[in-house]
Amino acid sequence: MIQKKICMLGGFAVGKTSLVARYVSSIFSDKYLSTVGVKIDKKQLNVDGKDVTMMLWDIYGQDDFQTVQPSQLANETFSPSPAGAAGAGCAAGAGAGAGS
Ligand SMILES: Nc1nc2c(ncn2[C@@H]2O[C@H](COP(=O)(O)OP(=O)(O)OP(=O)(O)O)[C@@H](O)[C@H]2O)c(=O)[nH]1
Ligand SMILES: [Mg+2]
Predict the structure, then answer these.
(1) What residue numbers bound the domain in which 12 lies?
(2) Rounded average pLDDT over 2-19
(3) Is residue 70 part of a domain?
(4) Which of 56, 65, 66, 99 is most buried, judging by how many CB atoms fall within 10 Å of its CB?
(5) Which pLDDT score, from 0 to 100, does residue 77 have?
(6) Which residue has a Cα nearest atom 25 of ligand 1?
(7) Domain-embedded: residue 71
(8) Residue 28 in contact with residue 18, Cβ under 8 Å?
(9) CATH number for position 61
(10) How many domains does the chain have?
(11) In angstroms, what is the span from residue 10 Cα to ligand 2's centroid?
């Protein structure tokens, strides 16, 4: 079993939550409800016969990445660190803006 943590980072209202909802639940809504804190979703899939579990961390919008709490980016499953290793095993995404 392969496990990956994906963190959605980006400014307000760029479409992070919408992207996750479309990917996980195949739904889209044009209502805007700003994310408070973090919302975690799980997506399981099979890639080349291997089970893959993706934990999608949809983090509240911020324009300055420096303000993201390191504990939210830390990969606690694979590289536990008392200091909370920022960015370990974490992919930043959500550069896509609204307006498709
Ligand atoms: N037309 C269009 N609208 C989109 C698209 N993606 C998101 N939106 C709209 O943009 C608005 C904001 O989307 P969210 O997914 O909530 O944005 P967010 O980045 O999660 O926002 P925060 O949680 O505040 O950081 C919503 O009204 C969505 O319906 C898109 O691809 N096309
Ligand atoms: Mg959101």
Answers:
(1) 2-65
(2) 95
(3) no
(4) 56
(5) 53
(6) 61
(7) no
(8) yes
(9) 3.40.50.300
(10) 1
(11) 9
> CB under 8 Å to 88, separation ≥6 — which residues?
73, 74, 75, 78, 79, 81
- C-beta separation of 28 from 22 below 8 A: yes
Alpha-carbon distance of 98 to 12, in angstroms, equals 11
Look-up of token digits 């590289």 = 79
The answer to whether 53 and 5 are in contact (CB under 8 A) is no
CA of 71 to the centre of ligand 1 (A): 25
pLDDT tens digits for range 71-83: 888 876 544 444 4
Supply the pLDDT for residue 76.
Answer: 67
Overall pTM surpassing 0.90 (yes/no): no
Residue 36 falls inside a structural domain = yes
Shortest-distance atom of ligand 1 to CA 30: 29
